[in-house]
Structures are given as C-alpha cells and as structure tokens.
Amino acid sequence: MVKSKNDIAFEILVLVIITLVGLACLIPILFVISYSLTPMEEMLRNGGFSLIPRNITFSAYKQMLNDPTLMNAMKVSAFITIVGTAANLVVTLMLAYPLSRSYLPGRKVFVQLIVFTMIFSAGTIPTYLIVKATGILNTLWALILPSLVAVYNFIVMKAFFEGLPNDLFESARIDGAGHMSQIWHITLPGIRSTILIMLILEIGRIMTTGASFDQVFNLYSSPVYEVADTIDTYIYRTSFGGTKNFGYTTAVGLSKSIIGVLMMLGANRLVTACGEDGLF
Predict the structure, then answer these.
(1) Between residues 76 and 26, which one has the greater pLDDT?
(2) Which of 108, 212, 213 minimizes the C-alpha distance to 150?
(3) Interatomic CA distance for residues 235 and 89, integer angstroms
(4) pTM for the whole thing?
C-alpha cells in the first residue's frame, strides 16, 4: 500500500506528539531519581535542578532504613490502605446491591443523597466534631471510618449490579433462592472482574493516603504522630517543617511509588495467574 504525502505527514505529526508527551512524562521521573541521588550541596549549586547528577550518593536511602519515624509512617499508611480498602469494599457492596434493585422503595432518593456527598463536602470542622463525638479521636479508625464509603466506587458497583440480567434473579427466586443465595451465586460472580480491578488499583496505592491527606494533616498533631502520621504527611512535615532535606524526602516519595507499582504488578500477575481478567 502506497502512502500519500498527507498520510506520511500525519504519521510524522503523531510521532512528534507522542515523543513530546513521552518526554514530558519521562523528564519529571528522571528529575526525581536524580534529586534523590544528588548531594544537597550540588543541588543547591545548580539552583535546585540537576537532571544528571555528577556525584551520586545513596545517603538518603541509607537514612530511610535507619529512621524509625518513617517505618511507623509506613505501617500506618499500609494499615489505613489495607483495612480501609477491605472495609470500603464490603460496605460499598452492601450499599450498592440493594440500591440497584428497582423494587426497593425510595432508592432514587437514597442514591441522590449519596451522590450529593461527592459534590458537597461539609469540611474539616464538622468531620472533627463527628469523629470526636463518636469517640474515635486520636485513633487509626478516625482515618478510616469517615471515608468508609467511596461514592465513585458505589456508582461503579451499582451500575454493574444493574447490568446483570434480571432473568437470572427471577429464575433464582422461582427456584427458592433467597437474597443471600442470589448474591453469592449470581451477583458476586457476575461482578468478580470489577471487584478484582478495584482491588488491584487500591493495592497500587498501598502507601498513599490519597484523599485523606487533608483530613490527616488538619487533624493530627505531634502527640498522635504514632497513630496518625502517614508517609504523605511525614514527607510534608520533614520537607517544610523539619530538616528541609528535600533529597531525603524525594527518596522517600520515590520509594513509596516504586513499592506501589510493584504491589500493583504483583497483584495483577496473581489475578491473571488465577484465570481472571487483570488490569493489563
């Protein structure tokens, strides 16, 4: 097939755009790696920018391994993600399934109220008052329970529940299957791939506080660092309120991202090895 000049020009344009976008994604990553390996003195001499370090040092990574505060922050972040993800999945399933059934009275009102919370947030002070009133202040549960239901995940789950054929549920009811039997034998197998994809994505952010950063940062203080300090807040506190060792905190952030990527790849490989559809 002979390509016309317009086709060749279009392909060249596409390649140029892809190359520019690739460089725009690659250069920041290289800069982060370089920052974590460059001595602070050299970085200051270069005005805070050094894409290719002249002198390489691993002092930031050695400091990470000997910092008990960082290890505690990693434990808190991992606990929040693992327990929070499991609890969020269970509660979201329990909420999305009944609200996906057309025969539930008033379900549209409940769905509208839930979606409204995704658009409108009460703010930090009401959250603090609720956490204090429920008696979970200064505990890890204060970082999990207020965000127990993710509205986005609820909408996705509800849409998949509604996409399941009603004939299956009707046949199951005729055969005498109750709600729990329908959920176990029809609903969960029907959305298994969706659940696994969500789990893979959540495992990838195992060390990331995510949307809870503002909540943690605004509510915690030095007396409760042991139960409230996550990696994200630790990086912020160390960068701007402590030693201001940006090379060290860059190494911490890079290590957190690498752990997340490896965990996501491992989870995806495990899912595909079990015969299910993975993320990629």
Answers:
(1) 26
(2) 212
(3) 28
(4) 0.69
